C-alpha cells in the first residue's frame, strides 16, 4: 500500500517539529477528510534556512509534509519556485488512487510558498 | 502436568485463538461468565505482551508505570494494563502508535469529529481479517439479517471511502439483496427515500440504516406531511453514529422509538443501535430489549472519572476504557472520552458478557461528536446557504 518514499518519510519524520522562530507559515487542509499540514519556515534573504511541519491525517499526508520540508530546506525560494510540475509529481513516488489527494496537497504547498514569496 | 491454557491448546492445534473467538460469538455469549472472562483475559494478556514487545512508545509508557507483561497474569490484573488516550490517534505523532512497520499496514480508517482533526486508525492484514469476521459475526448475532433491502440514509463509501462509520454500515449491505444510499453530495431528499421504500414494497423486507439524526429527519418529514408507512414484519431501523445533534440537542431515544412505531410501523424491538469506535474493533449492538452487548472477546473497564486507575461498580457512570485484543497493528488498550455504564445483573436475552449503556461524551473532550455530527453540521451549512436570500445589498 505504501511505497518506500512514504514509508521512509512517515517512519522517520526528520522535519516534524515546531520552530521557535519562524518568518512564514503555510497551512492547508481538506475540509472533507480532515487531512491538514502546517509548515513553518525561517526564510532569510530569500533562503529557506529551516522548514518544519506538523500534519494530521493519513500516513501519506504525514509523509508529504516531510518530503516538502526536506526538499525546500537549504534552498532559495527562487529555486523552489522554478520547480516544474513534473518534478513535484515524482516526489511522492507511485501512489495508490486513495493517496492521490496528497499529491494535490504537495502541489498546493508549493503554490502557497510561491504566493507567500510573491505577495 | 500443567494444564494448557485454552489459547495455547488452540495454537497447538494450528488454530489462531483470535480467529476462533471472532467466529464463535454465539458460543462465547453462552458460556458461563467466569469461563468467558478467562478466555477474554488470555486473549488480552497475549495482545498486551505483543504490543509491549513491539511498540517502543507503548513499552516506554508501560515502563514508566512499572507495568510489564509479568505484572498481568489474570482477569483481575487487566485493570493494570496501561491505556492510550484516544486523543493520541488524532495527534501529529500518531505514527508512534504502530506496533508493526508502515508497509505492513493495509488500511487506514478515520473519523473526523467536530474539531475537524481526523482520528486515524491503521490496520494490518491480520487485523482486517479479524475485524471483517468480527463485524459480520456481530451483525449476524444481533441483526440476523441475510436478505432484504437497505435504505441507507447516509452518504456512500464512494463519497467518503475512509470514514469508519460508513464503512461499517456498508459491510452490512453485503448481507442484503439490494440497497441504496440516499445522501448524495451532502443532500438528503426525504421524498426520494419514501419513493424508494414504496418501490421495494412486496419485493423485499425493508430496513432503514444510518445515523440517528438523518433517520430522525425522515421521521419528522413523515410526521409533518402526515404520511404513515407500514414496513414489513422483520424490518429494522439500524442506527450508528451517536444521538447528539451538532446543535448540542440530544435526540430522545424514546421519542425516536415512538416515531418509528407510528410512522414506519416498526416496534421498539426492531430498532437496533450500534456503538463502535474507529480506533477499536469492538461493536456493541442492541438486542431485542434495546440493551447493547459488547463483543464477547473485548473487555470494557469503566473508570472512575476522578481516579482513572479505579473501576466503578456496574450501573455507575464512568469513563470507558477498552481492551481490544483484535488490534494487532496498534495497541487496542484505549482510554476513550465516552461516559458509559455497564448494565448490572443478567441479560433477559440469556447472553453472558458485558452490556453497556452509552451516556455522553466526556465534558472534557475536545470532540463534541463523531463523524455523524460533523456530517450533519456540513449538511446544515449547505442547506442554509441554499436557502439564504440571494439579495446581498
Outline the structure in words.
The complex is a heterodimer of chains A (119) and B (393). Chain A is α+β, with helices and mostly antiparallel strands and 119 residues long. Chain A has a single domain, classed as Sufe protein. Chain: A (Alpha-Beta Complex). Chain A has five helices and three strands. The radius of gyration of chain A is 13 Å and the shape is globular. Chain A starts with a helix and ends with a helix. Helices cover 33% and strands 22% of the residues of chain B. Chain B has eleven helices and 17 strands. Chain B has helices at 6-12, 17-22, 25-29, 33-54, 56-65, 125-142, 164-173, 190-200, 212-224, 253-264, 371-387; strands spanning 84-85, 105-112, 118-124, 149-152, 178-181, 183-184, 187-188, 206-210, 237-240, 271-276, 283-286, 292-294, 299-304, 307-311, 318-323, 333-342, 355-361. In chain B, the strands form three sheets. In chain B, strands 1, 4, 5, 8, 9, 10, 11, 12, 13, 14, 15, 16 and 17 form a 13-stranded mixed beta sheet that branches. Chain B is globular, with a radius of gyration of 22 Å. The model of chain B has no long low-confidence stretch (mean pLDDT 91). The interface between A and B is medium-sized, with 23 and 23 residues.
> What's the gyration radius of chain B in Å?
22 Å
Which structural class do you get from the secondary structure elements of chain B?
alpha/beta
Radius of gyration of chain A: 13 Å
Q: What is the rounded distance between the termini of chain B?
A: 89 Å
Largest interface: A-B, 23 and 23 residues
H/E series of chain B: HHHHHEEEHEHEEEHEHEHEEEEEEEEH
Could you write a compact summary of the structure shown?
With 119 residues, chain A is α+β, with helices and mostly antiparallel strands. Chain A has helices spanning 4-11, 59-72, 77-81, 85-90, 100-118; strands at 24-29, 36-44, 47-56.
Amino acid at each position: 500500500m505504501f511505497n518506500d518514499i512514504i514509508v521512509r518519510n512517515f517512519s522517520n519524520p526528520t522535519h516534524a517539529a515546531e520552530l521557535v522562530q519562524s518568518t512564514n507559515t503555510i497551512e492547508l487542509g481538506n475540509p472533507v477528510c480532515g487531512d491538514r499540514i502546517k509548515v513553518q519556515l525561517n526564510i532569510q534573504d530569500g533562503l529557506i534556512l529551516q522548514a518544519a511541519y506538523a500534519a494530521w491525517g493519513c500516513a501519506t499526508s504525514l509523509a508529504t509534509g516531510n518530503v516538502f520540508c526536506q526538499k525546500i530546506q537549504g534552498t532559495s525560494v527562487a529555486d523552489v519556485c522554478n520547480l516544474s510540475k513534473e518534478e513535484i509529481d515524482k516526489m511522492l513516488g507511485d501512489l495508490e488512487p486513495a493517496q492521490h489527494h496528497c499529491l494535490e496537497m504537495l502541489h498546493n504547498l508549493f503554490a502557497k510558498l510561491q504566493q507567500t514569496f510573491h505577495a | 502436568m500443567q494444564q494448557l491454557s485454552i489459547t495455547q491448546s488452540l495454537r497447538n492445534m494450528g488454530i489462531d485463538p483470535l480467529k476462533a473467538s471472532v467466529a464463535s460469538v454465539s458460543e462465547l455469549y453462552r458460556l458461563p461468565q467466569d469461563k468467558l472472562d478467562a478466555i477474554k483475559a488470555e486473549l488480552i494478556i497475549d495482545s498486551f505482551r505483543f504490543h509491549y514487545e513491539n511498540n517502543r512508545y507503548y513499552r516506554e509508557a508501560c515502563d514508566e508505570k512499572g507495568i510489564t507483561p509479568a505484572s498481568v497474569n489474570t482477569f483481575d490484573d487487566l485493570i493494570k494494563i496501561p491505556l492510550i488516550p484516544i486523543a493520541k490517534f488524532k495527534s501529529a505523532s500518531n505514527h508512534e502508535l504502530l506496533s508493526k512497520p508502515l508497509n505492513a499496514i493495509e488500511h487506514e480508517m478515520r473519523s473526523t469529529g467536530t474539531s475537524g482533526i481526523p482520528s486515524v486508525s491503521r490496520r494490518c492484514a491480520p487485523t482486517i481479517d479479524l475485524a471483517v469476521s468480527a463485524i459480520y459475526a456481530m451483525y449476524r448475532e444481533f441483526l440476523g439479517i441475510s436478505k432484504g433491502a437497505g435504505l441507507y440514509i447516509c452518504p456512500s463509501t464512494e463519497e467518503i471511502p475512509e470514514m469508519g462509520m460508513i464503512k461499517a454500515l456498508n459491510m452490512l449491505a453485503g448481507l442484503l439483496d439490494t440497497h441504496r444510499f440516499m445522501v448524495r453530495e451532502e443532500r438528503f431528499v426525504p421524498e426520494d427515500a419514501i419513493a424508494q421504500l414504496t418501490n421495494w414494497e412486496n419485493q423485499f423486507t425493508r430496513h432503514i440504516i444510518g445515523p440517528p439524526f438523518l433517520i430522525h429527519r425522515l421521521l419528522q418529514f413523515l410526521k409533518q406531511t402526515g404520511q404513515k408507512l407500514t414496513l414489513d414484519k422483520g424490518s429494522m431501523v439500524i442506527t450508528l453514529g451517536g444521538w447528539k445533534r451538532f446543535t448540542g440537542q440530544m435526540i430522545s431515544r424514546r421519542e425516536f422509538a415512538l416515531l418509528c412505531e407510528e410512522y414506519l410501523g416498526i416496534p421498539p424491538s426492531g430498532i437496533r443501535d450500534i456503538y463502535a469506535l474507529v480506533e477499536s474493533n469492538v461493536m456493541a449492538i442492541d438486542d431485542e430489549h434495546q440493551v447493547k452487548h459488547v463483543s464477547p472477546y473485548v473487555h470494557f473497564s469503566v473508570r472512575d472519572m476522578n481516579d482513572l486507575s479505579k473501576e466503578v461498580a456496574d450501573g455507575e457512570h464512568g469513563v470507558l476504557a477498552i481492551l481490544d485484543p483484535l488490534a494487532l497493528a496498534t495497541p487496542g488498550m484505549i482510554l476513550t472520552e465516552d461516559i458509559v455504564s455497564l448494565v448490572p445483573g443478567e441479560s433477559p436475552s440469556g447472553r453472558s458478557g458485558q452490556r453497556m449503556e452509552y451516556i455522553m461524551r466526556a465534558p472534557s473532550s475536545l470532540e463534541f461528536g463523531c463523524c455523524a455530527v460533523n456530517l450533519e453540521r456540513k449538511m446544515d451549512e449547505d442547506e442554509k446557504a441554499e436557502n439564504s436570500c440571494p439579495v446581498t445589498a
